[in-house]
Amino acid sequence: MAPDGRHVYVTHSSGTMSVIDTATNTVTDSIDIGYGALGIAITPDGRHAYVAHWASAILSVIDTATNTTSATVNVGRAQWDVNVTPDGRWIYVTNRGFGTVSVIDGATNRVAAMVEVGGDPADNPVGVAVTPDGRRAYVTNRGSGTVSVIDAVTNTVTNTIRVQSGPNAVAVAPNGRYAYVTNEGSATVSVIETTTNTVTATINVGNAPITVAVAPNSRRAYVVNRGYRALSVIDTATGTVTATVDLGGDPGAVVVTPDGGHVYVTNSGTSTVSVIDTGT
Predict the structure, then answer these.
(1) CB 250 within 8 A of CB 266
(2) Cα 154 to Cα 90: distance, rounded to the nearest angstrom
(3) Strands 100-105 and 90-95, how do they pair?
(4) pLDDT digits (tens, 9 = 90+) for 184-194
(5) For the whole model, what pTM was predicted?
């Protein structure tokens, strides 16, 4: 989702990225970005999109004004997810299968650090989310059922938090108080209190929850359940599921518009994107 809410960017494993105009909900452009595209993050100023590739060592940098590749960064194979600090200076990329997170300098598009997480390559770091103050990054280690906390100043792991089976995605609430982790293997969401880095709640959702996004006002969390082909809506104040929305085949990524009015979910099984009105 672009910071101004005007465009949604959707990666395709075949090597392209679709640009959706949210005013009309139509695809306005298709960008050639290379095979195996997966995770994507937009810089806070909206000028660039960073795209991770699970099938190559190359991180693509897209100029959103021209919708062309402006740079590539060699970061390591089996990339999965990518996130950007609020000031746009640092980009964090998980390298699944290598047990590492690459830290990219946004000013030079070069690898500035390589952080080992989880303790073993088999831990498979997949999801990454940066706190709103830019001081920490939370990384899910799918193989070990843990979340690593990286100090963004020193690029060292300061905490390892035990969650549940198969943690996949992580999202930090805009107010910075909680991090939400989808546990695909246990059909739950772990809620981590960020000041103490402890799990304060475990919420039952649908089968195979894989991704999560939090509303701009931090009052709702939206969880995609691949197994149920449904979206769980969590009231973050009570920690309860208040609604379930049917989706398309094999749903995946989820984002929320800056005004909180709509949620977009990719459906890889049907090559579609579901648009959900959060009011209804």
Answers:
(1) no
(2) 12
(3) antiparallel
(4) 999 999 999 99
(5) 0.96
